[in-house]
């Protein structure tokens, strides 16, 4: 009998110990700093901000050169071979490009460095001067990375521009920075030609693709990427290496409000973030394979692609539309990037992870029957184990569920993922837990901004909590300051709350040619540390981890005095299976909210077929009263479950059948909604919702 009692107590004691250890561990600790009074936390393992993790290295150029010398014969950059490109036409007459891609073809570290040196020399031979700026305007690919490192070797500042940027913002970015050389793909070259008469300083264009319209315009000298390398190889020049304080990149934000602003990042700024992430990703090293598909014009991707070579890893390039075997651009029956590459680490934005989650759920629901019941049982058992309420699902049982159920799910991203980094926007708790369980890999959710080189906070690998963004990165101090107007104070109980302010070596210099805005949000304290005022509102948990709870600009006061945080409500409601995207709208002259909802075609059509709702196309289905009622009912249920107030849950919605894309100008390249652009585009629909 005693043995049975002991056996029964073991899992209970283990669970209690597990829970108590979570409470005890301090991930961030208070620290005394200068500047505006507030409540400040630092990383518990680093008493002062980290500037570099590599002795004697102070710039990205030095870091890359050192890596290439250490791993000269090892593969570094990989690109898939194009086998076939074709156009498929659907029954309703729509055309879609489909590609069949082969294996990865690799450049070694040594060959990559040689190519970087050749291209750098070629740039100079073409007439580009050190004090002039180069813009890289293209989708993520190995030529983008090579061009970036080439400019770093010349101490030439790179202006990064999203490939999806609209013409007005593109003109603004190139003219404001007085760019003389643009490096782009053939697709982007066509965009440049359309605005050639509006560009003041561009004299040279280098096309990454060998085939391009050389007679596109007589205003510029147009060269191919390969030709520039050849010219440089024939006339090699010595490097002109930068200093830590030199500006490496002017990164134009994706412009969720108005025209984009150019953030000036020094080599020291980016190196600080790279060094900090190096210390917190477990076991990051030469065995790691990284799948690169996010925009390199985004600081999250740029930092990641500078980190991977520094640890001897491998970078394989892909795209969001070819990521998996079922991605939109992959020819049926052929393999996506993740299947071929089998990456071990990936960075992702929440919108991509939401798609993975929805894709898995779609497959499970389609199978139905025993397969669905088995998946649901496995998921609930793993969820109980993570929450600490069921010990049995950790050991042998965990192995069985992984083998029987989750192994197939993990194959979606190649089967070897051991760590995921999510950033760029808030990740819903539902998606975070779903991906964590199904992929069996921790998700390090980070918080940062372009203005802080992505450096602010990052959740640690053993932190299984959801809804938080971790403790300060080793390169950052994170401070909360009072925001009395919003009702957030550092003296609040049970947790200090306030506007989030980030300080440390990753905080950038400010906005290019925008001193007024720079002075508004950047401050230098009496100790010489730079601080950036984010406009986000957060609270610190007892273990030093940050939770984002609001945004100053997203708060709207309703007619009867209630405050609504638009972003908070959108994040809560976005987990509805019917929602592909959502924008909440609040009007101070009304007592309720409304919403524009981009419908998930699969989920809505699946519901319609089960309910026997007839329709000719998806647009018609989204207009039907019963469809709108069903989606609204889902939002109300989810809102109540998330403990939203009645006035926060939309009373009326407009259901939209067409997705919001960067090309439409309604979301950024990082897939954040552009609130003002959407309000303008759907002003009539919003007005009707209030009648």
TrEMBL record:
Residues 97-512 form the AMP-dependent synthetase/ligase domain. One of its GO terms (molecular function) is long-chain fatty acid-CoA ligase activity. Residues 1-15 form the signal peptide. SUPFAM superfamilies: Acetyl-CoA synthetase-like. PROSITE patterns: AMP_BINDING. Pathway: Lipid metabolism; fatty acid metabolism. It catalyses: a long-chain fatty acid + ATP + CoA = a long-chain fatty acyl-CoA + AMP + diphosphate. Its cofactor is Mg(2+). Keywords: ATP-binding, Ligase, Nucleotide-binding, Signal. One of its GO terms (cellular component) is membrane. PANTHER family: ACYL-COA SYNTHETASE LONG-CHAIN, ISOFORM J (PTHR43272:SF83), LONG-CHAIN-FATTY-ACID--COA LIGASE (PTHR43272). Belongs to the ATP-dependent AMP-binding enzyme family. This is AMP-dependent synthetase/ligase domain-containing protein. It comes from Gossypium raimondii.
């Amino acid at each position: 009998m005693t043995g049975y009692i002991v056996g029964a107590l073991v899992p209970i004691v283990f669970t209690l110990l597990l829970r108590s250890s979570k409470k005890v561990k301090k991930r961030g600790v208070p620290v005394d700093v200068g500047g505006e009074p507030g409540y400040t936390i630092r990383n518990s393992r680093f008493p002062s901000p980290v500037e570099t993790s590599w002795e004697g290295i102070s710039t990205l150029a030095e870091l890359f050169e050192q890596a290439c010398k250490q791993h000269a014969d090892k593969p570094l950059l990989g690109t898939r071979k194009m086998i076939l490109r074709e156009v498929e036409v659907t029954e309703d007459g729509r055309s879609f490009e489909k590609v069949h891609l082969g294996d990865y073809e690799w450049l070694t570290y040594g060959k990559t460095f040689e190519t970087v040196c050749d291209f750098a020399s070629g740039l100079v031979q073409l007439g580009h001067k050190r004090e002039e700026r180069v813009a890289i305007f293209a989708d993520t690919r190995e030529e983008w990375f090579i061009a970036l490192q080439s400019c770093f070797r010349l101490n030439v500042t790179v202006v990064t521009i999203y490939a999806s940027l609209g013409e007005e913002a593109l003109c603004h970015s190139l003219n404001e920075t007085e760019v003389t050389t643009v490096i782009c793909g053939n697709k982007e070259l066509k965009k440049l030609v359309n605005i050639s008469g509006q560009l003041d300083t561009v004299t040279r264009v280098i096309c990454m693709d060998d085939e391009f319209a050389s007679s596109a315009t007589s205003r510029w000298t147009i060269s191919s990427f390969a030709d520039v390398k050849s010219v440089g190889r024939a006339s090699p020049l010595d490097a002109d290496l930068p200093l830590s304080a030199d500006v490496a990149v002017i990164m134009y934000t994706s412009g969720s409000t108005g025209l984009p602003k150019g953030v000036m990042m020094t080599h020291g700024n980016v190196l600080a973030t790279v060094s900090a992430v190096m210390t917190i990703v477990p076991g990051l090293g030469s065995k790691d394979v990284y799948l690169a598909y996010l925009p390199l014009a985004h600081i999250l991707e740029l930092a990641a692609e500078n980190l991977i070579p520094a640890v001897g890893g491998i970078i394989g390039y892909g795209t969001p539309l070819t990521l998996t075997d079922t991605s939109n651009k992959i020819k049926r029956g052929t393999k996506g990037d993740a299947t071929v590459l089998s990456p071990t680490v990936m960075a992702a934005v929440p919108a991509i992870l939401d798609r993975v989650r929805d894709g898995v759920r779609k497959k499970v629901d389609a199978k139905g029957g025993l397969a669905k019941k088995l998946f649901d049982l496995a998921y609930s058992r793993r969820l109980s184990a993570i929450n600490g309420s069921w010990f049995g699902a950790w050991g042998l049982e965990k192995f069985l569920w992984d083998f029987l159920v989750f192994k197939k799910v993990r194959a979606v991203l190649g089967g070897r993922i051991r760590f995921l980094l999510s950033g760029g926007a808030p990740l819903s708790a539902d998606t975070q837990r779903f991906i964590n369980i199904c992929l069996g890999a921790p998700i390090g959710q980070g918080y940062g901004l372009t203005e802080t080189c992505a450096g602010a906070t990052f959740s640690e690998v053993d932190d299984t909590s959801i809804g938080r963004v971790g403790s300060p990165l080793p390169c950052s101090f994170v401070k909360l300051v009072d925001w009395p107007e919003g009702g957030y104070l550092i003296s609040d109980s049970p947790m200090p709350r306030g506007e989030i302010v980030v300080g440390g070596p990753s905080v950038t210099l400010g906005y290019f040619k925008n001193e007024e805005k720079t002075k508004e949000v950047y401050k230098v304290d009496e100790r010489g540390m730079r601080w950036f005022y984010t406009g986000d509102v957060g609270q610190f948990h007892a273990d030093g981890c940050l939770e984002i709870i609001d945004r100053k600009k997203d708060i709207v006061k309703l007619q009867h005095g209630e405050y609504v945080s638009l972003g908070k409500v959108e994040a809560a409601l976005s987990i509805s299976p019917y929602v592909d995207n959502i924008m909440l709208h609040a009007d101070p002259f009304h007592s309720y909210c409304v919403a524009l909802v981009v419908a998930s075609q699969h989920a809505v059509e699946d519901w319609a077929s089960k309910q026997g709702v007839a329709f000719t196309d998806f647009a018609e289905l989204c207009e039907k009263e019963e469809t709108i009622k069903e989606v609204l009912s889902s939002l109300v249920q989810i809102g109540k479950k998330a403990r939203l107030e009645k006035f926060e849950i939309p009373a009326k919605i407009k259901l939209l059948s067409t997705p919001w894309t960067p090309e439409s100008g309604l979301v950024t390249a990082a897939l954040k909604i552009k609130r003002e652009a959407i309000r303008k585009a759907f002003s009539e629909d919003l007005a009707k919702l209030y009648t």
